[in-house]
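Q: Give me the 3D complex with adenosine-5'-triphosphate.
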Amino acid sequence: MAENQMDKLSALFKRRGFVYPGSDLYGGLANTYDYGPVGTELIRNIKNLWWKYFVQKRDDIVGLDASLISHHKIWEASGHAANFADAFVDCKKCRTRIRADHLLEDWISLNKDTDTANKSYEVLTHEKVSVAFATEKVEGWSLEELGEFIKVFEIPCTKCKENPGTEWTDVRKFNQLFPLQLGIVEGEQGLAYLRGETAQGMFVAFENVINSTRVRLPFGIAQLGKSFRNEITLGNSVFRTIEFEQGEIEYFFDPKKSDWELLFNDWKEMMWKFSTEQLGVSSENLRWREHADEERSFYSKRTEDLEYKFPFGFKELWGLAYRTDYDLGQHAKNSGKTLEINDPETNEKVVPHVIEPAVGINRLFLMVLNDAYVEDSSAGSGHVRVVLKLHPRLAPYKVAVFPLLKNKPELIAKAQDVYKMLKESIDGIVVWDDRGNIGKRYLAQDEIGTPFCVTVDFDTLEDDAVTVRDRDTAVQERIGISELAKYLATQLV
Ligand code: ATP
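A: Here is the predicted complex, encoded as structure tokens.
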């Protein structure tokens, strides 16, 4: 049922222009996607909302737009060049490459009742295996532990299904950073990386930001932009892609003056509110999950994930981590600079600690669409209406204007006047549609979440009023043209 929902969404994405497979003309390129006209508007609306909420409406957060191509020393200092690696295995029969942790976690979630008591291990322990079955998580496991689990439990390949546990290659590591060779410099000097996360940009620009602005602790630097990871696991549409967009904030504070637990909880509340109040997602589909000690990075004092119930299960949407002063410390050590800020009250130098909320914009996009997707059969007669009940703030198109018939010049002229007037006055896109019959036009607009359709009919020529139809209720109202812009604007906020 839930997997079916993913199929329905994927079909809608292509049919209506939300998302297309990347490089589609040439047979596609795995794990890449192009956003179509409607998807582009939706993702832009999500990004604008995020930026407004976390940057423009606050006094304590400034923005940054760092280069996607970055010095190799940044990623050596951050540890990514050495450690940003996924463990993977290849099925020897069908050659499918799978991330080992995902293979195990998915298998455990489907085989929770497995008897683990009679198994014997060389590197694993019974306790570790029990924890994995209880939490459905194997983060932090060594290559040997992952490999032993696959063998002991004879995990089959998820693609060809028949493979017993012994038909896998050894578990190996694969670095997710994309290296680049810059043309102007030879050898090692020319090595750069496409950024694997936006976060490092904020640490690298820290000194420039404090020297060029009036920020005082506590303050944040926010960034919205593309990141690149050579991901192994495929599927689930735009949930995990090799090129994706992140919205990250590094919130710097003095641990002697600010209580990190209070700040952490404030951030949790803001992330929750943004998802439910700004994006309009149902709180029943959200939950918090705290990282266990083995899963958390050694420098982090607390990490929690805000998870959303996607059609393929609860998955990470937004991470929140208290990263201490680890990142600034690493960059200070590797660059030879002192990355400190002056406390104007005590005149002391402070190396700030940091709390980092990090979200994938494409995951917000998928979440919003999944949450808004409704099949409405209330009209009876077996007819099912697919409606995207998107918050009007997010809707790609705000209003669609129709002439009742397309071959009546006087109707077209009147409808064009209404269309032009709304295009001028409505904040957002107003579209024109005169194809097919009215029913089909409603159907098409419902599927892309257009909150209002305005029809100009023969009565309009007499009474200067139009029919306004509400997407969610399908109720139609007659509104005078002189009132129309104001009426719609109040409904669209
Ligand atoms: P995951 O465990 O799902 O791989 P992560 O813990 O590695 O994610 P972070 O490095 O914390 O992710 O990145 C912050 C956010 O960026 C994630 O919460 C997620 O929303 C998003 N994100 C990470 N990797 C991808 C990806 N390959 N495609 C789309 N979004 C991603």
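A quick observation: The longest helix spans residues 37-56.
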